[in-house]
Design a protein that fits this description.
The complex is a heterodimer. By secondary structure, chain A is of the alpha+beta class. Chain A is about 50% helix and about 20% strand. The chains are: A alpha+beta, B alpha/beta. The interface of A and B includes residues 298 and 309 of A.
Chain lengths: ~375, ~130
């Protein structure tokens, strides 16, 4: 094949000069099986081609009878219907070592209306085929684009699934209870919510959530929930109580935001169990109160016991020197006994171990000295 | 040992007067001091083996005073006499070297009994013969 091309190239000058004289002539180089190896512009013009038909059989353009090129140099060949051109072509075949050079002279129209009509139909058919090819190419392109889009979407879906998995891991392992409330029900509860409340997920998502709230805190929580649902603001609810399945009361802080859920507004609530903190605060508060009471009791004892000791000492000494029949003796004895009684009270104050109050005449509360010291006053 | 000598340390002057009269009428020789420094000065001069110390004193506390006394005097009977205390106060007093612990108001007869028992102990221990004082 290379040899053939070289031969063609070596003859080019001669051929090109020939072509200048006979501009309408088409020249085509064929290989041994009659496939087109090269051609000139005369040939492409003759068959209205956009580009050289490399590799195509020449029978796409000319109808050959068996051995046409083998035995005859001068030929009269019909245009192939596939070529989209009709008529007759005069050709001169020049044998080469590996194939053939075919010089095709202009087409002779037949003048036959029938043939022209067939030719027109053929041309139409060819145009349709070309359109079909174009459409097929477009279709192929669209198919490729569609496949690329599908691949892209699949990748996006995989990423979304990965993200979903990450979010699921975060939500399901959160230290906070996360719940979605809508229409008075919990639409979603995470495992921590189940753990805190003790109910199963199924029960939690089927009972009115207000039933989980301590009766005294229902109004507060419901108001905050309503404000969020009205879109007024994101709400934080501090220190409200929920009642767990076993009846224990858990303290909680909550923060809520409005979100769409199944096409309707809902609240996404992040709830922290603050029971331990609350109990520690209560214990600290209790301890601080107790500390205050102890400090006050200490001060009272220290200050009061001094004069009580003096009164007690002197009354005791006076009693010793006064006859029991003397009317003063009884009075002094009373003083002495009351001092002893006061001493008993200050001793109880010294023994206070816990903070305990009692109602005083219905208008205030005072330290219950007996209860706080674990003793009874006579 | 000078038998019958008692020292009472308290920042309440009226109380000191009352106790001096109470112990005095029982036959004891009573020394009084309103603070620790004053008490130490008296103890440097006098051999006193029975003591009643208030815990809450201005400046050096009764507990610190007791520790100081115990450096020199391991045998003397030292009583804590306080307006306020609790278990921790009691433990601290015992650790400091107090022998007994009274919370005000205490009946005079109980204080006299404590003084009497203290002198009885000292006598039984025959401190004079041992030459510890």
């Amino acid at each position: 094949m290379t040899m053939l091309k070289e031969e063609w190239v070596s003859q080019r000058e001669e051929l090109e000069s020939y072509l200048e004289i006979v501009s309408g002539i088409g020249i085509v180089l064929l290989d041994s099986v009659l496939n087109i190896q090269d051609c000139n512009q005369g040939f492409t013009r003759m068959f209205q081609l956009q580009r050289k038909p490399f590799g195509l059989p020449v029978t796409n353009f000319l109808i050959l009878v068996d051995d046409d090129l083998k035995y005859a140099e001068e030929l009269k060949l019909s245009c192939s219907h596939q070529s989209g051109v009709h008529g007759t072509v005069y050709c001169r075949a020049v044998k080469t070592k590996n194939g053939c050079l075919l010089f095709c002279e202009r087409i002779i129209l037949t003048g036959s209306r029938a043939i022209e009509q067939i030719g027109a139909i053929n041309n139409e058919l060819i145009n349709l085929q070309r359109e079909s090819v174009k459409k097929n190419l477009l279709l192929e392109k669209l198919k490729r684009e569609l496949n690329e889009r599908i691949t892209e979407l699949e990748a996006t879906l995989a990423r979304v699934k990965q993200l979903e998995e990450k979010y699921r891991l975060v939500v399901e392992n959160a230290a906070e209870a996360i719940v979605i409330a809508q229409d008075g029900l919990l639409k979603y509860v995470n495992p921590m919510a189940v753990k805190i409340l003790g109910y199963s997920e199924k029960v939690l998502t089927s009972m009115p959530f207000v039933e989980l709230l301590h009766t005294e805190d229902r109004e507060k929580v419901f108001e905050a929930h309503s404000r969020v649902m009205r879109g007024e603001e994101n709400q934080s609810i501090h220190e409200f109580r929920v009642v767990a399945l076993d009846g224990t009361i858990r303290w909680a802080d909550s923060h809520a935001v409005i979100i769409p859920w199944d096409g309707k507004p809902a609240t996404l609530n992040f709830i922290i169990d603050i029971t331990d903190r609350k109990q520690a605060e209560d214990a600290r508060h209790h301890y601080e109160k107790l500390q205050g009471v102890l400090e006050m009791a200490g001060a009272i004892c220290h200050e009061m016991n001094q004069p009580m000791q003096i009164i007690s000492g002197y009354s005791e000494m006076l009693l010793k020197n006064i006859s029991e029949n003397d009317p003063i003796h009884t009075k002094l004895d009373t003083i002495n006994k009351q001092i002893i009684r006061m001493g008993t009270i200050t001793r109880k104050l010294m023994n206070i171990k816990k903070y305990e109050t009692q109602d005083y005449a219905g208008f205030c509360r005072i330290i219950n000295i007996n209860g706080s010291s674990g003793e009874d006053i006579e | 040992m000078d038998e019958g000598k008692i020292i009472v340390v308290d920042d309440e002057v009226l109380l000191l007067g009352m106790l001096k009269e109470a112990f005095g009428s029982a036959g004891y020789t009573v020394f009084t001091a309103e603070n620790a420094e004053e008490a130490l000065k008296i103890l440097q001069k006098e051999s006193i083996m029975v003591m009643f110390l208030d815990i809450k004193l201005p400046g050096m506390s009764g507990v610190e005073l007791c520790k100081k006394i115990r450096i020199e005097n391991k045998v003397g009977i030292i009583h804590a006499f306080t307006g306020y205390s609790n278990l921790y106060g009691l433990l601290e007093c015992r650790a400091a070297g107090f022998d007994d612990f009274f919370v005000k108001p205490t009946e005079i007869k109980m204080l006299l009994k404590a003084a009497q028992e203290a002198f009885a102990k000292l006598k039984r221990w025959e401190i004079d013969n041992c030459g510890l004082t």
